[in-house]
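Need PadR family transcriptional regulator's 3D structure for a figure. Predict it.
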Amino acid sequence: MRKGVVEYCVLGLLAREPMYGWQLAEALTAAGLIASIGTLYPLLGRLRDNGWVSTFDQPSDAGPVRRYYRLTDAGIDRLALFRAQWQPFARTVSGLVGEERP
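Structure prediction for PadR family transcriptional regulator:
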């Protein structure tokens, strides 16, 4: 179930601010959405291939240059579409799988 929404969670995080891979992995791991950073990079590659994110490199005071990810206009549009569909979908699923009646 997580697999279907993780890419949109990444888009949502990037809507707040550009982030580098480790930042994204920490946020997604803390939320229990990914098991490790190794699962994130293929997903980021797909998002880039879809044209939803772009990358840029930025020097870091703490080590090597970091590759940051940011939303493209297409990514902003895709996230807006997901947001419009998510609430009705979540309500429907909650209604179907809600507590059993005695």
